[in-house]
Write a structure and sequence with these properties.
Shape: globular
Largest sheet: 2 strands, antiparallel
Helix content: 55-70%
Order of helices and strands: HHHHHHEEH
Strand order of the largest sheet: 1-2
Structural class: mainly alpha
Strand content: under 5%
Low-confidence stretches: none
CATH architecture: Up-down Bundle
Number of strands: 2
Distance between the termini: 32 Å
Number of domains: 1
CATH superfamily: dinb family like domain
């Protein structure tokens, strides 16, 4: 199986960054906290969870993570749904941190050699860095897709991607 290059990874993370910004455009912090009528999580949690994945990607790339452990804890997989503003980071902070993560990922990938990308990393099993990053990006795309429904929950009734 062929895995992505630094260029294709850079483009992939840039694309999901752009889609996330489009899906959150015009939303308020209150909009980001709206809950679906069944067990799930709000847009705020999904966006924070995406940032948790980006933090992992930055660490694997040898870059500086955007968040520390205290910020990540609320958005880890398996954490309870966010039910009020006091449990969440403000949407504006999440979006600013997303922008910062995008800059750091792009910079780290620009410095990465093909050999570095092919090197094995300890991700719980023997995987190359490129495999690990491809998996993290796939996970990001999964959650990015959820944002469309969560945007509509805020009453936007619009079409972002045509």
């Amino acid at each position: 199986m062929t895995y992505p290059t630094t260029e294709s990874l850079t483009q992939s993370f840039a694309l999901t960054h752009r889609l996330i910004k489009m899906q959150t455009d015009g939303l308020t912090n209150a909009d980001s906290l709206l809950q679906l009528p069944f067990r799930g999580n709000c847009l705020n949690w999904v966006l924070g969870h995406i940032l948790d994945g980006r933090n992992t990607a930055l660490k694997r790339l040898g870059g500086s993570p955007v968040w520390d452990k205290s910020e990540i804890a609320r958005y880890k997989q398996g954490s309870e749904p966010i039910s009020c503003a006091e449990q969440a980071l403000p949407l504006e902070k999440l979006l600013a941190d997303l922008d910062q993560s995008q800059q750091r990922i792009a910079a780290a990938l620009a410095e990465m050699s093909p050999e570095g990308l092919a090197a094995t990393v300890d991700a719980g099993e023997s995987k190359s860095l490129e495999q690990t990053l491809a998996g993290l990006h796939w996970h990001e795309t999964y959650h990015t897709g959820q944002l469309e429904i969560l945007r509509q929950l805020a009453g936007t009734d619009d079409v972002i991607i045509k």
